[in-house]
Amino acid sequence: MTLGFDPTSIAGKRFTTRPHVPLVVVGAGPAGLSAAIAAAKRGVKTLLVDENPIDAGLMGLDVPLFFGGRMDASVQNAGRLMERFIEARPAIAEAFDLGIDVQLGVTAWSAYGKGPTAAAYGKPLLGLADGEKSWLQSFDAMIVAAGARDLPIAFPGWDKPGVMGARAFQALLGDYAAFSGRRIVVLGGGALGVDTALAARAAGIEVAAVVEIDAAVSGAAGLVDKLRRDGVPIHAGRCVAGTKGKAEIEAVTLAPASGQGDSVEIACDTIVVAIDLAPCIEMFDLLGCACSYRPELGGYVPVVDAQGRTSLPHIFAAGDCAGIADGALSDPAHAEAGGRRAALAAATLLGGDASPDESVPPPAPALVDREGPRLRWLNAHVRRGGDDMIVCQCEEVRVRDLIGVRPPRYLAYDEARFAKRNLHALAVEGQVNQDQIKRLTRAGMGACQGRRCRDQVQMILAAQGNCTPADIPMASYRAPLRPLPIGVLADQDEAPEIRANWSAWFGIASQWQPHWLEPVEGESEGSGALFGGAEK
Amino acid sequence: MNETLVRADASGKKGASVVIVGGGVTGLSTAWWLAQEGVDVLVLDKGIVGWEASGRNGGGTTHTVSTLFKEEQRLWPMMDALLGYPTEFRPYRIRVGLNQGQLDLYWRIAGVAIQQGFTADGLDPRQVRELVPLVGENIAGGVFCNYGGHANPQRTVQAYAWALQDRGGRIRQHTAVTDIVTAGGRVVAVETDQGRIGCDVLVMATGPQTRLMAEKLGVTVPVAPARAEMIVTEPLPLMTHGGIDGGGLYGRQTLRGNLAYGGGPHEWLEEQGLHAPRAVTTPITRSLARRLGDLFPRARHVRVIRSWAGIVENTPDGRPVLDRLENPGNVVIASMSSVGFGLSPASGRAVAQLATKGQCDFADLRQFGVKRFAALGPDWREKLGWMPWTPEASENLVEAAP
Fold first, then answer.
1. Which residues from B are below 8 Å from A506, CB to CB?
2. CATH: 3.30.9.10, 1.10.8.60, 3.90.190.10, 1.10.260.40. Which one for B90-150+225-314?
3. Same CATH fold assignment for domains A17-51+106-148+278-350 and A378-467
4. Which residues of chain B have pLDDT under 70?
5. What percent of chain A has pLDDT over 70?
6. What are B35's strand-pairing partners?
7. According to CATH, where is 3.50.50.60 located in chain B?
8. B77 in the Ramachandran plot: left (φ > 0), alpha (ψ -120 to 50) or beta?
């Protein structure tokens, strides 16, 4: 034990970690593979982790992508999915050949480092897990190449199996060859929607429609023409008025976005929400990297310099997690260039080969307004779907519950009292805060960890608070970044001194003595080995 | 002794009869009690009410050792009706002993409540399993406490806030108190980043910031900040009673069905000044998961979906400071020393009485005076070992190959 320190505190307690690595790269997409390979070539010993193939149970929760239940049975076979994933990424073989420690099926669920409220770290730590167990990995530097996630936009009738996101569609179709649908409708006529429709056509999947809220689709003209020649109907100026199907999607009803005109019903088994993606910034928020709201980059992004350095000197960002651009969605060259830049920056920090990168990066992709289309889609659906439209599926929070800051239905409460406690009233008392609204309405507190609703809630709060999404403080991210079973998260290698000194609460003897006794000093009865927990 | 100071109808928007610094559960409850009596009260918080420890704790309402325990038990069942907003309070606790030693300790602890007129029943392993289907075969038995309970901290703090406003009390969020203004041996105002606010009485309910705040008055209130953390799972079917302790953990099953549990090593911190940084979790998350699995083996497949941490303060003996100062003569210090949430209905009433009458008429607060620490030197934290610790390099890591 560490002399002179409170024995029930963290002082002197050790954490078990795998053998130290200088560099970890999180994410084996184009950016992460490129970063790992470049770092290895610069002489930096590198660990590359990727959560794929994703556990079928998580897919069923729409974690980490909006899968919508459209996985086929082959996702139960992790070995098959692993093979397909590796086949889809030839650079993985190169990574192995270069001596990179490639660990697939390994999820980075947290990261730790010294800060104002946690100082008991000599080295930064990464929390990792596979399907059976979790462990810690100490490192010196980390390149986060976590990519992009789906940005679900609610519409009336969206809470049924068969509604999914474009990134999930890409994963099921491309990485896993496990998409179970046959006839899709794509929401979104921008680069993402057009790419989605073309990929579906190339795989022999029927595309019953591409739908765009604005009067004209913004996807590349050549690609849109290709879709038209292929017989894919393009419905511009429309949004979703509802869906049909009892157990799952069987049809979608489109209506004019302007509100005037006829509806049209289109049979389909899948609706792919391809309006936009968002950067995966969870890891940056956990570590305390500065993030800022950049709508032209897809929302909140880590603050980075041109080499991908974040506000923490040992943490780097590469690829879509640092910002979305239409050009980068279809061309991995941008992500790969970002990976090489981050690898150079990391190698410089770690004492590896810091010679300049000779390759010529592609010109930076053009940035467009990403916020406008999202808001137009969501606002149109809120108008169509009304106050009863579900926003948070996990906790069944509807638009009216958000605006009214209502407690969940299972609580009895006095409706009249809550009538004057809505968002507008809260906004008068100070900027509306999404974490606060989450706690009161439960929106975002479900098993999908807010993936299906956090962006929408932010937009709705902004609309109701008469401000822009940029004014809403970012809702926090929390470990574990993926829902992990208790048995997997459990520390099976816990240091004996943690067990020997365990206390439920501080172990101050006089805090737990009846008030009619004089306070005594020392440790309380409830500390130490009694509650240390069972030996393995 | 102290005169009655508070006017029920203080005029002017620039101040209040009673200004309460700190919109955590202690300050909010105090304000609610004052507002119920028609006292003009204003709560100031540097951020959103209940943002820190008050909204992050385990929700337990079972503080048998406190002089405020009986009042805690009397009030909680009435709080939803009294406040007019749901707290999610549910009564009783079940303590699960994973071995005989733990069970024996739980009985000793229950003895404290039994001495005060409450009752507890023994549960054999079968009975525990009936009430708590998630436990495994590894139990010695349990204690069913016919007292205590649990509530939702976040919902409760908001309920206090809205209830006090319903009764004419005021809250100013995002208003940080930067200094205290005295004249003639009394506090006359606080300085904030929004301007000066006058008061007849000041209540200081500033949690971990209490030492720094009291220092502005030249008063020494020894408290040290520490970080604690919890984990929460996805929802499960509801058990009959959610207030279940065991395995070295505190916590509950929420009314939504999540298991929310904490425990284990805390971390003593450097003082952060008046703006608290966001408290983070640590790998102790995994130790919590391990013990949750030991307590509820049948829930080992259930997913942990979130974790969080909060910052509390502790006094050297872990007991509250609830004290009307002599000098200045119109200040009440209120720190509940890390056990504030559950006792809040009672502590608020006590502090409200200290503010208006100078004494509490339902509980003996004599041992909660700040003067008990008069002999403590400035190095008290070092002496207790309540110090932050940073390992050298890999000193606190044990490498193990897979």
1. 226, 266, 314, 318, 338
2. 3.30.9.10
3. no
4. 1-13
5. 99
6. none
7. 15-58+154-222+316-384
8. alpha
At B7 the pLDDT is 33
What is the mean predicted confidence (pLDDT) over A106-120? Answer: 95
Q: What is the pLDDT of residue B1?
A: 32
A66: nearest Cα among A454, A477, A451: A451
Is A121 a residue whose pLDDT tops 70?
A: yes
Inter-chain touch A118–B255, beta carbons under 8 Å:
no
Q: Which of B88, B293, B339 is closest, CB to CB, to A411?
A: B88
In B238-286, the DSSP E strands lie at 244-246, 250-253, 259-262, 267-268
Residue pairs between chains A and B whose CB atoms are closer than 8 Å: 318
Q: Which CATH number fits domain A17-51+106-148+278-350: 3.40.50.300, 3.10.420.10, 1.10.3090.10, 3.50.50.60?
A: 3.50.50.60
Could you tell me which of A403, A409, A438, A415 has the C-alpha nearest to residue B155? A438
pLDDT score for A523 = 76
Q: What is the pLDDT of residue B11?
A: 42
pTM above 0.90, yes or no: yes
Q: How confident is the model at residue A535 (pLDDT cuts 50, 70, 90)?
A: low
> How many degrees, rounded to 5, is the angle at CA A138 between CA A135 and CA A140?
155
Taking CA atoms, what residue in A is nearest to B64?
A514
CATH number of B15-58+154-222+316-384: 3.50.50.60
**Nearest neighbour of A478 by CB, restricted to B171, B308, B397:** B308
Q: Inter-chain contact B285–A449, Cβ cutoff 8 Å?
A: no
Facing residue for A504 by CB, picked from B155, B174, B250: B250
In the block, tokens 């192995």 appear at A96
A159 Cα to chain B: minimum distance (Å): 19
CA angle, residues A84, A89, A92, in degrees to nearest 5: 110
Which chain A residue's Cα is nearest to B166? A417
Q: Of B14, B33, B86, which is closest to residue B334 (Cα–Cα)?
A: B33
pLDDT in tens, A386-398: 999 999 999 999 9
With bands split at pLDDT 50, 70 and 90, how would you rate the model's confidence at A529? Answer: confident
pLDDT for position A427 = 86
Report the first-to-last Cα separation within chain A, whole angstroms.
21
Nearest chain B alpha carbon to A57? B303
B271 CB within 8 Å of a chain A CB = no
A163-165 and A264-267 strand pairing:
unpaired
- Candidate CATH numbers 1.10.10, 1.10.357, 1.25.10, 1.20.120; the one for domain A378-467: 1.10.10
- Is a pLDDT exceeding 90 seen at residue A325? yes
CA distance B395 to A120: 10
Can you give the pLDDT at residue B10?
38
Instruction: Work out the end-to-end distance of chain B between its first and last CA atoms, rounded to an integer number of angstroms.
Output: 68
The domain ranges of chain A are 17-51+106-148+278-350, 378-467, 494-531
